[in-house]
Fold these 2 entries.
Entry 1:
Amino acid sequence: MVNQHIQTAPKSSKEDFTRTIGLISDTHIPTRSKNLPRGIFRVFEDVELIVHAGDLVDLSVIDELEQVAPVLAVHGNMDTPEVREKLPEMDFCTFFDWKIGVIHDPSALFGVKKMREIARENRFNVLVYGHTHSAHVKWDNDTLFVNPGSPTNPIPPFLVKPSVVLLKITKEKLTPEVVQI
């Protein structure tokens, strides 16, 4: 169930104006990493919104990220009761006519069927998710599924690098870019 949302409007009247949001997940502060890597702040310095797909563990992660841009976040399976109480299980934001949903665990490990169902039921053009700690970008028909991975605890660590995603948005298209931290 979607709890709340952020509606955004272009800062410019130009049709081709590009908006950029930062996608992040599975930071696990302070259980698996003491701090957010400084590289996150460099990568996200020009974003206008940061979407966190859960497993923050501590709410201080939001405070830190909000020094760069507003944060839209959901709770994950490893989050404390305090985080679960404050953050919804699923949320969304809208840029131009693109509806971008976020959830921590859409059962991605069991295939795309449940993810498609979540996107369809909520009319999401994009579904941002976490849980796997591994970055993944997949177009399925007209829906974009994006997992930014983990900037602090990639799994498996010998194959996967710490990462986040920059999502560039125009009225006409969505362009995701996985950025290693």
Note: The first strand starts at residue 2 and ends at 7.
Entry 2:
Amino acid sequence: MSKYNTNLAAEYYVLSTLYRLGIDASLTLGNKKSVDIIIVKPEQSLITVEVKGLVDRYDWPADNIQRTDDSHYYVLVCYESKIEDPSFSPSAWVIPAAKIHEFIKTYVTRKVVSRSLVLKNGDAFKGNWKVFQ
């Protein structure tokens, strides 16, 4: 499976979850974008979401993570090496943009959201879909 298809699967998973919760959300189109989903709250305010999807248990690439505003969220999705199994639900962490820096590691050649840090310190964000309601 290509990286692009993994990201699409993750974006549609998040969108599906939001719809199941009765949340008014729309997928944005394009390959190089910083907003994957837009949520319209009942009072007409907007929330933007950036989805990061992985097939395996690795760190999420973070070179393009820049936003820190209160209305922006990152949803980290991992298919735990079971993406080909449609009966498997992936793991997902919903992290406010203002908190994502707590999980970022910077190396000489790249920046990542550290899976080990998310697993160690991110329990409050796992399956944290209620922030969108």
Note: The mean pLDDT is 93.
